[in-house]
């Protein structure tokens, strides 16, 4: 199909999607914030009627002792717990189905996600599958969750994905080597606890990658054609917090104030992109993750400056806004100058926190496939400021080759 027809179809699909999104309601969780907030939320879960909770997490967090205090707090308030720690990075259909089976076996009436993006994504899909008596594959796509999931609660232990407030969960199709989304307003958790005390032990490389994930959400949602006054305020606030605090948490992991600020940045950016969507950075990163299992935040961080370069002329005014928000210029300067400076600041931050410029696992032979898959994902769903064709996407990817 010629690029002109692809662009026309893309714009028509976006028009329909924008109308649908206005008709689909997505709530916002009750947020508990600050050190110790996770324990306060446990009591609130009991007050809301939870009696048997499936805690969805990973084996590392269990080993580190983060789950024990939460389980004890729930049990002290009369809530029985089953722990499912079989979630690994980029959760698969099989891992999620195992959690579903455990929830059904024990008659769980609520799901608590504890961890980074993978446990939170898995927990959301588990809750939806149990309530809908559905397989994971039945729910992949947009707005396929017919019945309300089991009540979902979230305690993020990283600051980046924003999954504690979003309408999306991602599952990996191992056969297709692809990440596939489950998108529905019903997936938004009822409550979330942003507890910086649970994040102080994160190693710098994870803090860096997840923090750049939050920045990518903030930037792509701000540049989105679906952005509105509300989402733009959230995006700008998130970007400002990331630039002020990400290097601090990477260099001083025990800094509770900076950790709490990054948790808020993640949540603000999650709220923004749930309503305004994302763009080509995510489309490419999802496919790098599907093929090479590149951590999502790391893939976003490596790709982000290149997509900003590609979008610079079309998005100069909004990139200038971002530059002003982070204190990288004055209103007397032109939008073009400010846009260029913001992109430079993104590169400067990434370099400072140890993000590589190249992707070691990327193979030249895979570039056309990754580009095609990324563009297929973005087509008609991502309201990007500038349309990208196959050769342009391949050119971006080749800049990432080791």
CATH topology of the largest domain: Dehydroquinate synthase-like, alpha domain
Distance between the termini: 32 Å
Q: How many individual β-strands?
A: 9
Roughly what fraction of the amino acids lie in strands? 5-15%
Largest sheet, strands/sense/barrel: 6 strands, parallel
Q: What is the C-level CATH assignment of the largest domain?
A: Mainly Alpha
- Helices and strands: which structural class? alpha/beta
Name the helicity range: 55-70%
In CATH, what is the homologous superfamily of the largest domain?
Answer: Dehydroquinate synthase-like - alpha domain
Order of SSEs? HEHEHHEHEHHEEEEEHHHHHHHHH
**Any idea what the CATH architecture of the largest domain is?**
Up-down Bundle
The rough form would be described as globular
State the helix count.
Answer: 16
Write the SSE topology.
Layout: H1 3-23, E1 30-33, H2 37-47, E2 52-56, H3 59-64, H4 67-76, E3 80-84, H5 93-105, E4 110-115, H6 117-132, H7 136-139, E5 141-142, E6 152-156, E7 168-173, E8 178-183, E9 191-194, H8 204-223, H9 229-251, H10 256-276, H11 280-292, H12 296-311, H13 316-325, H14 335-352, H15 367-378, H16 390-398
Parallel strand pairs: 1-9, 2-3, 2-4, 4-6, 5-8, 6-9
Antiparallel strand pairs: 7-8
Helix pairs in contact: 2-4, 5-6, 8-9, 8-10, 8-12, 9-10, 11-12, 11-15, 12-14, 13-14, 15-16
Concise description?
The protein has 402 residues and is of the alpha/beta class.
How would you explain this protein's 3D organization?
With 402 residues, the protein is an alpha/beta fold. It folds into 2 domains: 26-198, Rossmann fold (3-Layer(aba) Sandwich); 203-398, Dehydroquinate synthase-like, alpha domain (Up-down Bundle), CATH 1.20.1090.10. Helix content is 55%, strand content 11%. The protein contains 16 helices and 9 strands. The chain has helices spanning 3-23, 37-47, 59-64, 67-76, 93-105, 117-132, 136-139, 204-223, 229-251, 256-276, 280-292, 296-311, 316-325, 335-352, 367-378, 390-398, and strands at 30-33, 52-56, 80-84, 110-115, 141-142, 152-156, 168-173, 178-183, 191-194. The strands form 2 sheets. It has a 6-stranded parallel sheet with strand order 1-9-6-4-2-3, with helices on both faces. The protein has a 3-stranded mixed sheet with strand order 5-8-7. β7 and β8 (178-183) form a beta hairpin. The mean pLDDT is 97.
């Amino acid at each position: 199909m010629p690029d002109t027809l692809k662009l026309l179809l893309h714009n028509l699909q976006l028009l329909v999607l924008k109308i649908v999104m206005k008709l689909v309601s997505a709530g916002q969780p009750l947020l508990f914030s600050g050190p110790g907030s996770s324990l306060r939320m446990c009591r609130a879960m009991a007050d809301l009627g939870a009696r048997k909770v499936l805690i969805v997490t990973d084996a590392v967090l269990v080993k580190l002792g983060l789950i024990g205090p939460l389980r004890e707090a729930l049990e002290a308030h009369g809530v029985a717990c089953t722990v499912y720690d079989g979630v690994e990075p980029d959760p698969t259909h099989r891992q999620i189905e195992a959690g579903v089976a455990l929830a059904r076996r024990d008659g769980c009436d609520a799901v608590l996600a504890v961890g980074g993006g993978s446990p939170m994504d898995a927990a959301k899909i588990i809750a939806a599958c149990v309530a809908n008596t559905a397989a994971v594959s039945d729910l992949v796509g947009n707005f396929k969750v017919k019945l309300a999931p089991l009540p979902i609660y979230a305690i993020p232990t990283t600051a980046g994905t924003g999954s504690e407030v979003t309408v999306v969960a991602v599952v990996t199709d191992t056969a297709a080597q692809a990440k596939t989304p489950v998108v529905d307003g019903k997936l938004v958790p009822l409550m979330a606890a942003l507890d910086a005390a649970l994040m102080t032990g994160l190693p710098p490389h994870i803090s860096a990658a997840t923090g750049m994930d939050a920045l990518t959400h903030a930037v792509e949602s701000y540049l989105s054609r679906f952005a509105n006054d509300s989402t733009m305020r959230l995006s700008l606030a998130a970007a400002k917090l990331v630039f002020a605090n990400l290097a601090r948490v990477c260099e001083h992991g025990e800094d509770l104030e900076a950790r709490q600020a990054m948790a808020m940045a993640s949540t603000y950016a999650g709220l923004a992109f749930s309503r305004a969507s994302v763009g080509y950075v995510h489309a490419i990163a999802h496919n790098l993750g599907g093929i090479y299992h590149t951590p999502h935040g790391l893939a976003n961080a490596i790709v982000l400056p290149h997509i900003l370069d590609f979008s610079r002329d079309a998005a100069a005014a909004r990139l200038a806004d971002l530059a002003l928000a982070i204190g990288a210029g004055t209103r007397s300067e032109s939008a073009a100058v400010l846009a260029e400076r913001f992109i430079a600041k993104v590169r400067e931050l990434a370099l400072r926190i140890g993000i590589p410029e190249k992707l070691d696992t990327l193979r030249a032979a895979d570039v056309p496939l990754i580009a095609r898959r990324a563009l297929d994902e973005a087509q008609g769903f991502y309201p990007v400021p500038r349309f990208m064709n196959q050769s342009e996407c391949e050119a971006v990817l080749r800049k990432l080759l080791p």
